[in-house]
Amino acid sequence: MSREQVILDPGLDLGKTWWQSVRLLAAMDRYAALGHPLLLGASHKIFLGRLLGLDTHERGPASVAAATIGALRGCRVLRVHDVRGARQAADLVAAILRADEENADSTGGARSGSASGEGNAGRRTERATQ
């Protein structure tokens, strides 16, 4: 298997406590820095319910928020239930990160500080997938 065929999936909720999943989501930029595409499957996960006190059917907005955080932190592939909402969030993230790059270019490299810490993170959020 070649390096280009590897995608990382941290597996939120799988064999983890809800708080470990929260911490893992917060650390996605560290995993993205490894150079492999990063998949995030946070949609309707248990950790969202435990963290926010939500039943499964109430986790839609929190799922989109988690996808947004993942996109900001370098996740290239989002496994979601609400494709439209996640796509809008990913498009917004990409636009903000592109604007951040333009701001850095026009100020001689000073960045406003994207959450991922990487200049090309916006290109990594090109597509929300089901």
Brief summary:
The protein has 130 residues and is mainly α.
What does this structure look like?
The chain is 45% helix and 6% strand. The two termini are 25 Å apart. With 130 residues, it is mainly α. Helix 1 (18-26) crosses helix 3. Strands 1-2-3 form a 3-stranded parallel sheet. The radius of gyration is 15 Å and the shape is globular.
Secondary structure layout:
Blueprint: H1 18-26, H2 28-32, E1 39-40, H3 46-52, H4 60-72, E2 77-79, H5 83-106, E3 127-129
Parallel strand pairs: 1-2, 2-3
Helix pairs in contact: 1-3, 4-5
Brief descriptors of the model:
5 helices, 45% helix, 130 residues, 3-stranded parallel beta sheet, mainly alpha, disordered C terminus
Q: Supply the helix-strand structural class.
A: mainly alpha
Number of helices: 5
Topology, number of strands = 3
Q: Label the overall shape.
A: globular
H/E topology pattern: HHEHHEHE
Low-pLDDT regions: 114-130
Q: Radius of gyration, rounded?
A: 15 Å
Average the pLDDT over all residues and give the rounded result.
Answer: 86
What is the distance, rounded to the nearest whole angstrom, between the alpha carbons of the first and last residues? 25 Å
Placed side by side, the strands forming the largest sheet appear as 1-2-3
The level of helicity is 40-55%
Task: Give the oligomer, counting copies of the same chain as homo and different chains as hetero.
Answer: single chain
Largest sheet: 3 strands, parallel
Percentage of residues in strands: 5-15%
